[in-house]
Amino acid sequence: MTDFLPLEHLVAACHWIGGKGWAPATGGNMSVRQDAEYCLLSASGKDKGSLTRDDFIQVEIATNAVPSGRTPSAETGLHTLIYRLFPQAGAVLHTHTVNSTVLSRVEKGDALLLSGYEMQKTLAGQQTHLNTIAIPLFDNDQDMTALAQRIEAFAAATPLQYGFLLRGHGLTCWGKDVNEARRHLEGLEFLFECELQRRLLEAK
Ligand SMILES: CSC[C@@H](O)[C@@H](O)C(=O)COP(=O)(O)O
Ligand SMILES: [Zn+2]
């Protein structure tokens, strides 16, 4: 892989995610946009906390085609969907945290609603804790084509922003570049932790 600074940023983000314990036991996947046509996606089945730049595989955004014949993430179709929906998206991060896994099961609706938190302002364009942010929540599916189609159909009616949750699975979020995707990931994870604790305490 030739010099490509965003990939350096993504590798650093993967190590940071690994250090946080947010991609346990090979869970999670990460990608960065190369240009309008291609992205670089993490190889399938690797420990995402110790990836190197050689572990990223070029994938065609429009078709999911892999010129090298290597095997990128099983969840490639969700990354390329985000790049297709949002030409301005520069990086996508998918993590498996305890908070996102548990909260996405406890919440039975089709969105996780967040309001009243100052940290909502970590999300691009948010300027007040008074807004209600809806993070869409989709039932998990091992059929990635079907899952991507379901998310795409939802997005046609309700544009996605920041990220979405897969029930019992984890968070997929993005940003205009790796730094913004990292901020969205860290901000959302903070909000999930707060929301889980709030629900636990208020249930008593
Ligand atoms: C380790 S089980 C989780 C996988 O099924 C999947 O959800 C995941 O996030 C990692 O898959 P991968 O193909 O390595 O990108
Ligand atoms: Zn996953």
UniProtKB/TrEMBL annotation:
Its cofactor is Zn(2+). It catalyses: 5-(methylsulfanyl)-D-ribulose 1-phosphate = 5-methylsulfanyl-2,3-dioxopentyl phosphate + H2O. Pathway: Amino-acid biosynthesis; L-methionine biosynthesis via salvage pathway; L-methionine from S-methyl-5-thio-alpha-D-ribose 1-phosphate: step 2/6. InterPro entries: Aldolase_class_II_sugar_metab, Aldolase_II/adducin_N, Aldolase_II/adducin_N_sf, MethylthioRu-1-P_deHdtase_MtnB. One of its GO terms (molecular function) is methylthioribulose 1-phosphate dehydratase activity. Keywords: Amino-acid biosynthesis, Lyase, Metal-binding, Methionine biosynthesis, Zinc. It comes from the Bacteria. This is Methylthioribulose-1-phosphate dehydratase. The gene is mtnB.
